[in-house]
Predict the structure.
Amino acid sequence: MSSSTGPATDLDQVIVPAVPPVHLLTGDVPALQVTDRLHRGSQIIGRFETSGMVGFKVSAQGRPLRVTLGLSTDDRSVSGWHTGRTEPAGPGPRFVQIRSQGRLRQCVLLRGRKSHARVSFDLTPEEIPDDGLVCIEALDVTEGDGVSEDVREALKGRVAPDGVAGVRLNKVVFEEPPAVDYDPDTLDGIRCEFYTLISAGGLANLNRQGTRQIRAGMFLVNPALKDRFGSSGRITFRLGTKAEPASLIPATWRRVNSELRWLRHAAKKMVHAAAPSVERVFSLRDGDLGTPEVSVRGNVTELTVPSPTNSPLLVMLAPVPGAVPTLECGIQG
C-alpha cells in the first residue's frame, strides 16, 4: 500500500542512522548501509573477503567526527576463507591501508595469526555528505591510487599478499572529538601503538608498558589526531635492540652459528655498540624521503621525522643478527 507522501510503502525499512557517541559491535545494525566484499557478523561488524568497504549512515549534524576501528586476524584470516578453498597466509606482516571518504587516513601492520590493531582518525564536517554516509575502505598496500611505487617496490617480498583477506572488523566507534586532549611529551613504545601513532605488527599486551619489539623489521608512523601526541610538528623515536634469549634460537645444524651471533650482539651491548640501523624512511604518498635524520648514542638510535599530516611514513630497519629492534619511546616537539 502506497503512502500518501510519496512512492515509499509501509513495508520499506526505516533507515536509523547512528547517533554519536555510538559503539557499533555487530553487522546487523541498520546504520550499516553499504558492504563490499565484507560478510556481516553477529558478534563483530564483519569479516573481509579481501580488500573491501563498509558504509555507515551517521547523524553528524554538522559536527566533526572521530572514527575508531578495531581490527584483528585469527585462524580464518586467509585468502579464500569464504569459498572453502583456502590458501596459506604468505610470509611477512599484512600491510593494510585504511581510507575514508576517498582519502588515506592511517595504515596498520598485522603480524601473525592472532593480532589486533586500532585505527583512529577525524572527519571534518565538510567531509561528511548531507546523507551522512561515512565510507571506510580496507585495502592491501598494492591496491588503490596515491601510494608511491617506491614504497610498493621496497615492500616486495617483505609483506604478505592479499593482506586484507579474512581480516575482522570488530567494532566501529563514532564520537565527537574532545575539545582538548592532554598528552605527555613522551610515550613508551607500547603506548605509541595504542594511540595509533605507530603500527609495528599489532597491539601488544596493554596491561604492560615499556618498549615495543619490532619483529617485522619495519614500522609505520601515522598522522596524529589533532592536539594529540605526535601532532606538534616533529617526533623523535628512540630505538634499541633486545638480544634473543638462547633458548629461542632453533636447535638446527646452524645453531652454533646462531649462538655465536647472539654472543656477538651481547658483546656489542656491553661496549655500547648495538644500536639499530635505520635503512630508509618513505612517505606512502611521496616515496623515499632521502637520508633519514638519525643520531646514535651508545646502544640507542634516535630517528627524528616530521609529524605526518596527509600520509603515513614507513620506517625500514636493517636486520640485527641475534637480536630484535625495539621502540623504546617517542618524544614530541
Q: What stands out?
A: The chain has three helices and 20 strands. The chain has a mean pLDDT of 89. The first strand starts at residue 22 and ends at 24.
